[in-house]
UniProtKB/TrEMBL annotation:
GO molecular function: DNA binding
Domain of life: Bacteria
SMART domains: HTH_LACI
Domain HTH lacI-type: 3-57
Name used for this protein in its record: LacI family DNA-binding transcriptional regulator
Keyword Phosphoprotein: no
Source organism of the structure: Microbacterium psychrotolerans
Record InterPro entries: HTH_LacI, LacI/GalR-like_sensor, Lambda_DNA-bd_dom_sf, Peripla_BP_I
Pfam families for the chain: LacI, Peripla_BP_3
Keywords annotated in UniProt: DNA-binding, Transcription, Transcription regulation
Amino acid sequence: MAAGIRDVAELAKVSAGTVSKYLNTPHRVAPATSRRIADAIDALGYVRNDAARQLRAGRSRTIGLLAFDIANPFFIDLAHGVEQRAIVHGLSVLLGNSDENIDRESRYLDLFEEQRVHGVLVSPIGSIDRRIERFHRQGIPVVLLDKMGDPTLSPSVSIDDQSGGHMAVAHLISRGRTRIAFVGGPEGIRQVDDRLAGALLAVAENPGVTLEVIPVETRGVEDGARVGESLLLRPPAQRPDGIFAVNDRLAFGLLQTIVTEGNVRVPHDIAVIGYDDIEFAAAAVVPLSSIRQPREEFAAAAVDLLVGEDMSLDETQHPQIVLKPELVVRASTSHAR
């Protein structure tokens, strides 16, 4: 017969309730007690029946995380941070990627609902207020990621991207750049729109500085390379002398193309700054200046909000946490004119 919780408790010389606490909220069990329980579980070969436990509880110990664009290393780092914080709360993570597709987003939210997840962290494409209300009727809390929602409906954690866009372009201007290009898109993506708004504000504050918007449909390295090729077709005097790419992947493609194919000196001829400060930014062909998003703080705040929300679904006002980005200066903008 398979070992049960009472067998583990007897061998570890603790109560069955302590074993249950260890399995569900291990951070609440003393280290010495945790070691005894872990040893007992190993000795007995105990495997808990999650399906039965979740059926009794009505919900699982898994949270659903729905990312906006998992191809962006920012979301990979965010998922890792969410997982690390979830473990502290005795939770596991089910990861989905909407890939900016509303139908895929809907399918993943259906899956989370079917799985009776403990809660949902979602970076939505559009409004999902009706879906949130449906989750709430089932006692499933929802936290919006990187988008402020209706504070009467759900909490959120987001980055002040308008501040980040302003910071990026103000930095280029401080380096003596006056012909600035904003590379990003498509229009309607909240993060893109906010970063552009911040860039426009910085330009408006500095007479004599211009901003050219160069739209892209997607935001990958290949898109950046195509923009770089189009800039190299222009006479040098008609090129921007500063470029703000809406994310680091675009900036990588731009840098690779203009430096290796156009013999452009970065930052002497063109200064380039990206956004996200992903892991590889410092290893670009020219180390890339970027706007860093506080990923660890973001992930921890999101999971902590979700766990707290689990006990306050009836609150009339839910927290809206907005985190500030940070300027990281490297060689791609370090030269001042």
